[in-house]
Amino acid sequence: xxxxxxxxxxxxxxxxxxxxxxxxxxxxxxxxxxxxxxxxxxxxxxxxxxxxxxxxxxxxxxxxxxxxxxxxxxxxxxxxxxxxxxxxxxxxxxxxxxxxxxxxxxxxxxxxxxxxxxxxxxxxxxxxxxxxxxxxxxxxxxxxxxxxxxxxxxxxxxxxxxxxxxxxxxxxxxxxxxxxxxxxxxxxxxxxxxxxxxxxxxxxxxxxxxxxxxxxxxxxxxxxxxxxxxxxxxxxxxxxxxxxxxxxxxxxxxxxxxxxxxxxxxxxxxxxxxxxxxxxxxxxxxxxxxxxxxxxxxxxxxxxxxxxxxxxxxxxxxxxxxxxxxxxxxxxxxxxxxxxxxxxxxxxxxxxxxxxxxxxxxxxxxxxxxxxxxxxxxxxxxxxxxxxxxxxxxxxxxxxxxxxxxxxxxxxxxxxxxxxxxxxxxxxxxx
Length: 431
Ligand SMILES: Cc1cc2nc3c(=O)[nH]c(=O)nc-3n(C[C@H](O)[C@H](O)[C@H](O)COP(=O)(O)OP(=O)(O)OC[C@H]3O[C@@H](n4cnc5c(N)ncnc54)[C@H](O)[C@@H]3O)c2cc1C
Hints:
The chain is an alpha/beta fold and 431 residues long. The protein has helices at residues 6-9, 34-45, 79-86, 88-111, 130-145, 157-164, 184-197, 246-253, 271-277, 315-332, 376-390, 417-430, and strands spanning 24-30, 50-53, 70-71, 123-127, 153-156, 172-176, 180-181, 201-203, 208-213, 219-224, 227-236, 257-266, 283-287, 292-296, 302-306, 341-351, 358-362, 365-369.
């Protein structure tokens, strides 16, 4: 079993043509995940001189190369609960932002001719208990009556079993038809190649340690492990800023909790067997606080992820996750008991307190982050929006303008995660 991401292991390592280190650029983008690459693409296409500075030794080094491969529409929240809290207009706008985000990914795949298996097969949200099915039914009703999503379809236990999933486990499900999926490694490589084709530069192993301000408070020089770089504008596309100094990125780190999420990929199952598990090849998620998410790959593996335990990813914890995830897989598909596990890996999800992204400008530096595990589409979309804001366009920012206080008591490693895990496990047992 390989302890690395299936997505990055099944594509060649992208080798940027970057060339010489520049002394100055118009825009420096910190991080070569989807937010950074998408922003760089849009900026370079407008003629700006852009440099993407990446701490890792490959593009999509962190979450963008380690995720579950779902490009889903819909909110991670229960729509009705969110609408009751923030109002229908706001909840509808946020829901619409995810629809727009999936459209953005599709547009870039088409315009840049990225061969990444993008397919709108839809998402199936699966209830593991009758009470969860009732909640899905209420949610579907609310999405329809508020005029938010007329495409959703509620399926009872029988239809889920007959039409969708070869599992006895589920009490019903809700289909979101606009959701998609793709191969994350192929998408990342295609996006990086598009950045370079439009004139942007990508520098790997170039950790930004500190951003120096000029007298006016505007950012002026980025101090990196490769050397200094002057930039007129800076976009932080570096997640919760775990690389680089705490002094520079502590502001971000104090506002997001890094939560480990772990994934396995089986050996190829063969077309017929794979198809018999998930007939319509949808992305699937289960409704629970400690949930599973799964899908098939183009080469007919099952990829299944979940919060195997409450800790952060490391080679030891990734290896420990494999048997826990396998048990979760067999709870859904007991017929896979004979199947080998080829890959197991982990990644860090940057969770905000309200599980919604944050994007804007602070002290002259732009940022977009905190996608809270629902970000393959939003990171790409926000990269495009941030590029337009940086270029001075008055474009609406769906995630701007909300207060973003630090999480109380959160200064270093998240000591409280095991307690959070115990709380959610108890909640799932009694709900
Ligand atoms: C295990 C897992 C499963 C997930 N599954 C899904 C899913 O199925 N669907 C979904 O929608 N979302 C999912 N997500 C979330 C999604 O992958 C992320 O929201 C999205 O990829 C974030 O992209 P990003 O570019 O903002 O951040 P990242 O991809 O994390 O990129 C940030 C980059 O910045 C670099 N960096 C950091 N600090 C510095 C520095 N100081 N200097 C230079 N570079 C720096 C990092 O090395 C990294 O490459 C998942 C996440 C994880 C971890």
